[in-house]
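Handout, section B. The chain below has 360 residues.
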Amino acid sequence: MDSKRLQQLRNIAIKNTFFQPTSLNESVRRLGFVQADPIRAPATAQDLILRHRVDSYRTGDLERHYHNLDIEEDLFYAYGFLDRSVWSLLHPREKTTLSKMDKKLLKAVSDAKEIHPRQLEAQFGSERIVNAWGGYSKATTKALEDLHYAGFLRIVRRERGIRIYAPAKPSEVGELSAQERAGRLAKVIVQILQPVPEKTLRETLNRVKHSLNSNVDFSTVLARSYKLGELIKVAVDDVQYVLCGVGSGDVNDVPGDVPEHVRFLAPFDPLVWDRRRFELFWGWAYRFEAYTPVAKRERGYYAMPLMWRDAIIGWVNASLDANKSLIVEPGFIKSKPRDKQFKAAFDLELERFRNFLGGS
């Protein structure tokens, strides 16, 4: 195993995603995409991701300030929040033939400027239909979601978690071809996840293929990006990793001093999102177990990867007790570090986590 080369790539991954904490708007711009998840254990994935990258971030800040930010809520390779420049590359999606109901819904939203799904029930009824997860949704809510996905509507804010819709702003990409959009989206995904295994990159690109309104050949798109030097490949232990050609760092750099930091990471943090790379980089398999039967869980309902220095050495499960006090239970792949530096760094991360939750 080429451990030195792998360490160099790992170092690039860490430096790529953990930039100096900045403003909320700038953080989303630098990340490009923040995956969302509704589970609060004890905070949502989007909050857990942003707390490491936004100065003085508190849980709920994204939802509180969303309406003033230059970001959009939409489906990328997963559902979440995108910088508007990235969102623009996703639209227009495939051609959509609007039904009479769709046209009436669009007019109702346009007339109201912004609308809560409940406001439409009196006009369009409260019929319930089976949704994509096998549960039930109201037909008006599902129609609004479809119009949002197609790019006719945008989410302007939420009220108690419910999406409030408004007419979408026009896309800003101009007359880009599907191939050009695909090339730009490929670079965005690499920037978020680099160094990303080429197999993961291809799988992730296939998730956004629906956004290009065309049968794009991603092999051709990537080949062109490699030829132009926009993307580069580095092989380590028979795995091809892809990086941005500019600003990705020198893969021959020897890692410098490693910060004495402990971090509790979200299950969908960019550093741990790709489970394939996670296992290659850190030598153990991490799985999100919230939807795993209790008896089959190995780490916990919402186990968050535990990072110490430049290694991910275990996980933590965090919860609030009846008095809203924070309880954190760590687990370790090998053994708990016994040095004083780890204890001090762990305690500091606990304090940061309490402040992030509002001092609980």
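Note. The CA atoms of residues 275 and 287 lie 7 Å apart. Compare this with the example in section A.
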